[in-house]
Design goal:
The complex is a heterodimer of chains A (about 120) and B (about 110). With about 120 residues, chain A is mainly beta. Chain A has strands spanning about 5, 10, 20-25, 35-40, 45-50, 60, 70-75, 80-85, 90-100, 110-115, 115-120. In chain A, the strands form two sheets. In chain A, strands 2, 4, 5, 6, 9, 10 and 11 form a seven-stranded mixed beta sheet that branches. In chain A, strands 1-3-8-7 form a four-stranded antiparallel beta sheet, with no helix packed on it. The chains are: A mainly beta (about 120), B mainly beta (about 110). Chains A and B meet through strand 5 and strand 10 of A and strand 6, strand 7, strand 11 and strand 12 of B.
Chain lengths: ~120, ~110
């Protein structure tokens, strides 16, 4: 059974930093592209970033490039998202999600999701 | 960037009746090289992560009841729930993956 467990969220002051983690199990993590999607309270889904299986292809949402850094460690079956210079509008549940298919590029449709980790940016 | 627009924002349907949700992309998501539409549908219930229902615009994910169906091509797509059940109350999102992924704003489905 595929499991994705996010961690690292919490309350952070504006301007601060956080590193989110996603621990994967139940599938060959090294073969799949992975993604971060966020959801602000009471709002819709926003794609954040995608990374290919070998980390060669990395993509970010247009408004997020520069403050967000996605990475992965295939030896540890883990996905990460570093967020710097946090703003109030970054307050959201951050989900990690797995691509459904094994292909070279990243960011297709997502067949497995974690429960999410909540990030609150407030002074 | 491709913008996804869903309609309506919400709808109320009687149990056993049909629910129809529309999704329009700002440009075609049909890849001519493989004739596939890069369009997915998700269901999200309160307090839960989204669940993949449909991919390639019309292929049902394993385990998804056959009352859910997807149709359309190019820029116009539809998710149909043929006979609404109580457990289908949720928010539904379309998503294109032709370019960097983008979601529609969501459609809330309730019981009338």
């Amino acid at each position: 059974e595929v499991q994705l467990v996010e961690s690292g969220g919490g309350l952070v002051k504006p301007g601060g930093s956080l590193r989110l983690s996603c621990a994967a199990s139940g599938f060959a993590f090294r073969n799949y592209s992975m993604n971060w999607v966020r959801q602000a309270p009471g709002k819709g889904l926003e794609w954040v970033s995608s990374i290919s299986s070998n980390s060669r292809h990395i993509y970010y949402g247009d408004s997020l490039r520069g403050r967000f850094t996605i990475s992965r460690d295939n030896a540890k079956n883990s996905l990460y998202l570093q967020i710097n210079r946090l703003r109030a509008e970054d307050t959201a549940v951050y989900f990690c999600a797995k691509d459904r298919e094994i292909i070279a590029a990243a960011g297709l449709d997502f067949d497995s999701w974690g429960q999410g980790t909540l990030v609150i940016v407030s002074s | 960037d491709i913008v996804m627009t869903q309609s309506p924002d919400s709808l109320a349907v009687s149990l056993g009746e049909r629910a129809t949700i529309n999704c329009k992309s700002s440009q075609s998501v049909l890849y001519s090289s493989n004739n596939k539409d890069y369009l997915a549908w998700y269901q999200q219930k309160p307090g839960q992560p989204p669940k993949l229902l449909i991919y390639w615009a019309s292929t049902r994910e394993s385990g998804v009841p056959d009352r859910f169906s997807g149709s359309g091509s190019g820029t116009d797509f539809t998710l149909t729930i043929s006979s609404l059940q109580a457990e289908d109350v949720a928010i539904y999102y379309c998503q294109q993956y032709y370019s960097n992924p983008a979601f529609g704003q969501g459609t809330k489905v309730e019981i009338k």
